[in-house]
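Work Package 4 report. The design task specified in the project plan requires that, given a folded chain encoded as structure tokens, an amino acid be chosen for each position. We show below one input record used in the internal validation round.
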């Protein structure tokens, strides 16, 4: 990102994304001692939570550096952030594999193995968008949009927990993509206000993120996914 980025928008949306994650995971991770929850089932869940929290800190720090016109530090930290993004993806995939052979109960009605399509899609979109953002780091207009999309793509688990927190699980398949869409709409509105046009990265990438939710639910319930999910579970058992 360069100093010409509209820092106020990116600061606001970054803090909003981090706030959503914090609220969603407060009862089960960040503030579980307040909610008197039992310990997390596995060490890997602790590691996953810690790794993603560090990523959130890096993301906010990077946006604030740009807002402070410290692009030099932003670029230096960007190297470490890019490497750490790989750690986020690897730990995320391992967590999904472990969950696929657990007794996790999903409101979607999917078995743990079938449910793996949902977080795996989030991780895949995160990896693609962040990877494109890193690859296009010398093109600020693309870089900042892909990095923001990567963060938006990752909020599915937090959004699901917020929906559950308000006992709205019956509407989760509408509300979760609606939360995605709200952040995408914010990006599109900002583009329109500044440039009287919307950037195709937000328009196309945002459509992919929002549409991915009903598609992954559909795939999860499909007959052809069942043997694939069983294969995922078999592979997971060789690791865990």
């Amino acid at each position: 990102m360069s100093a010409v980025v509209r820092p106020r928008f990116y600061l606001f949306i970054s803090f909003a994304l981090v706030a959503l994650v914090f609220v969603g995971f407060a009862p089960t991770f960040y503030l579980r001692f307040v909610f008197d929850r039992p310990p997390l089932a596995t060490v890997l869940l602790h590691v996953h939570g810690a790794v993603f929290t560090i990523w959130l800190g890096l993301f906010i720090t990077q946006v604030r550096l740009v807002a402070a016109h410290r692009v030099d530090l932003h670029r230096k930290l960007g190297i470490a952030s890019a490497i750490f993004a790989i750690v986020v993806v690897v730990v995320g995939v391992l967590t999904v594999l472990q969950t696929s052979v657990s007794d996790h109960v999903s409101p979607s009605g999917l078995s743990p193995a079938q449910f793996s399509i949902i977080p795996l899609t989030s991780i895949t979109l995160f990896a693609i968008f962040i990877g494109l953002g890193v690859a296009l780091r010398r093109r600020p207009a693309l870089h900042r949009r892909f990095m923001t999309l990567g963060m938006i793509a990752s909020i599915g688990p937090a959004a699901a927990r917020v929906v559950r927190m308000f006992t709205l699980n019956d509407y989760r398949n509408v509300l979760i993509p609606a939360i995605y869409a709200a952040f995408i709409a914010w990006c599109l509105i900002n583009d329109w206000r500044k440039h009287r046009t919307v950037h195709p990265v937000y328009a196309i990438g945002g459509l992919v993120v929002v549409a991915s939710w009903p598609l992954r639910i559909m795939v999860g319930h499909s007959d052809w996914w069942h043997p694939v999910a069983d294969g995922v579970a078999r592979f997971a058992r060789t690791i865990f």
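The first helix runs from residue 7 to 30. Validation will be extended to a larger panel in the next phase.
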